[in-house]
Amino acid sequence: MLMQPDKFYYDNKIVRNFAIATIVWGIVGMTVGLLIATQLYSPSMNLGNQYTTYGRIRPLHTNAVIFAFVGNAIFMGVYYSLQRLLKARMFSDLLSRIHFWGWQLIIISAAITLPLGFSTSHEYAELEWPIDIAITIIWVVFGVNMFGTIIKRREKHLYVAIWFYIATFVTVAVLHIVNSFELPISIFKSYYVFAGVQDALVQWWYGHNAVAFFLTTPYLGMMYYFLPKMANRPIYSYRLSILHFWALIFIYIWAGPHHLLYTSLPGWAQSLGVAFSIMLIAPSWGGMINGLLTLRGAWDKVRDDVTLKFMVVALTAYGMATFEGPMLSLKSVNAIAHFTDWIIAHVHVGALGWNGFLTFGVLYWLIPRIYKTELYSKKLADFHFWIGTLGILFYAIPLYWAGFTQGLMWKEFTPEGLLKYANFLETVTRIIPMYIMRSIGGAFYLSGVIVMAYNLYKTMRAGKLVSNEAAEALPLLKETNEPSEFWHRRLERKPMTFLVLSLVVILIGGMVEMLPTFFISSNVPTIASVKPYTPLELQGRDLYIKEGCVGCHTQTIRPFRSETERYGEYSKAGEFVYDHPFLWGSKRTGPDLQREGGKYSNAWHYNHMMDPRTMSPGSIMPAFDWLIDQKLDTTNTTAKIKAMQTLGVPYPKGYAAIANRDLDKQAKAISANLAIDKIKVSSDREIIAIIAYLQRLGTDIKNKPAK
Amino acid sequence: MFKQFVHSLQGDEIYMLLSLFIFLAFFIGATIAMIKMKKSHLEYMSDIPLNEENAKSN
């Protein structure tokens, strides 16, 4: 019997829409990045208002480039390649549209709420709970659309790119849900269910795997599809792709604790994180080598083809970042690098090189194809390639330099045994020139993207979008299992089994690491003198979260003499048991604040908040003068205390109802204390709450209970 | 280092050793699987992205 091929159409319009969104949000996200880069050497660039201050728009930059720029690029790549690899149109045009517009709405709501200060404080998960729910819904829409397409496919076997897409879908879903366990107290405020060490572990299990399963696996999937297409030759080794896929998703999930080395996280969890981070070199380099060797014998093409140039730099950057990552997780290296700009440089080699350049390569290849035309200008694309590459170098090298310099300065002692740079600010002013250089690199990179936008716009104008691209393929015959068939081959035909298996593989690491910290009490020893925050301090803490202070100040002192000399006693797990969420931070643009309480007078803090440069000449901290004008919202104190009680914080029964009385009392005392220093400020201002919180920080363990 | 690491676990050695075992079993299993794969199938799989143009002319 002769079979008739099916006639069908690929949906190119949805691909085009995601492509445009990628470009637009890319420019927006990188512009915000450039703005915050300038804020680091010129505080006036905070533009004198709260909505554009570093603490609030740094999360806007990270969320925009990760979820808006890279996110849309992933969907562009997946929607283009999935249809062709499966020889089927996307499952549902309606779901495609809901996915597209839903995702853009989420991005817009992030762009509004983050500058307003609605933030959970968890890095790359700052969006508040209603947006978290929206993300979940849209992600499920994406999943249904993807699996629907897989089910109605006309190609029996799932190509390796699709495995990466499936793993991305499953893992991001798990990560997002677990890291969004929040107890809402109002429409835009919630508290994380986990506290302190446990919250830190969940956050960095999430944070690291956001890098793994949002910035890496979908991009590897795209690499496995687009690179063979561009080079017109099959992938170097399909065997290697299988090994590298399973190894990558299995090992990556364990590596999170390397973000918490030398903190109060139990030592065994840190060691596990380090061991698996080292192992990660193998699968990561497996992917890079597989990509680069695909170009064997095609290097002459690389010279002429701008898309391949972008791919080669992307793969090289991937290789560099994935070698550097494991090195940074070695405790001795981490001791110097962590909290410095070295990490920012490391991340941007990955982000600008791997994600950015791969995206540009795919855009230059894909847009002319769906518009059935040639690229408007090869010269401009070449210019983009060179200015972008130069941009990465100008961005990364100064920051590596800044990182080494500052990391070593923090640790340097005089022959007498005193800190050589006892004033933290000295270590900041030293690296200002590097910050300036970095922003020049960022400007180069951004200008390249703008040139690309123009080039692609002209390309689109010159051609016409083939919204529905005709294709033909034989329908799939009913499946039969050959008895001698190899198991992985069978697996490649069974998407649902594949999904479950990927889920099991990623759950192993997460569970082995997290469950003992949650259920074995000896992992988080409690300290009797550590008490819950007073209502005023709790309100102050929420302001600290709102203003994004955690973006520049850590609250975790590592057990090094250089740190205990500078900041005081090192951090203990028991000190954070009431911290919903934890606020350890990941970067010290300013000094650590865990033992800030009692170091300075209330008046010092007041003046420092109003204008940091009056107290610390040369400081790069933004002014937070609105805290002095704005009245503290105490209408939610009751709800906040109740929520904390629900989460197990031992406030006395019925305390929620009378909490504001204590709040007023403490606020009046601070206001009276400020009056002694001739500072007249009403006790109901936000500044009072934040001073109360800062003065409390890290003081509990000094009050040893009477024996 | 590993000894010290297991000793600080207070009775959870089994847990740790099991995860090490899973890890080793995974790589040994994967290596055997790789070796046993048929070349014709590997070629078929790696040609999928390049075959789509042919699909239209079928």
Describe the protein.
The complex is a heterodimer of chains A (707) and B (58). Chain A has 707 residues and is mainly α. Helix content of chain A is 63%, strand content 3%. Chain A has helices at residues 13-39, 54-86, 93-116, 129-151, 160-178, 196-213, 217-231, 238-252, 267-279, 281-294, 299-304, 306-328, 331-337, 341-370, 378-411, 424-429, 432-462, 487-491, 495-519, 535-546, 561-567, 602-610, 612-615, 626-629, 637-646, 655-676, 686-696; strands spanning 6-11, 182-186, 189-192, 468-473. Chain A has a two-stranded antiparallel sheet. In chain A, strands 2-3 form a two-stranded antiparallel ribbon. In chain A, a hairpin with a 2-residue loop joins β2 and β3. The mean pLDDT of chain A is 94. Chain B is mainly α and 58 residues long. Chain B contains 4 helices and no strands. Chain B is elongated and about 50 Å long. The termini of chain B are far apart. Residues 54-58 of chain B have low confidence and may be disordered.
Task: Please specify the SSE layout and strand pairing.
The complex is a heterodimer of chains A (707) and B (58).
Chain A: E1 6-11, H1 13-39, H2 54-86, H3 93-116, H4 129-151, H5 160-178, E2 182-186, E3 189-192, H6 196-213, H7 217-231, H8 238-252, H9 267-279, H10 281-294, H11 299-304, H12 306-328, H13 331-337, H14 341-370, H15 378-411, H16 424-429, H17 432-462, E4 468-473, H18 487-491, H19 495-519, H20 535-546, H21 561-567, H22 602-610, H23 612-615, H24 626-629, H25 637-646, H26 655-676, H27 686-696
Chain B: H1 2-7, H2 13-36, H3 39-47, H4 52-57
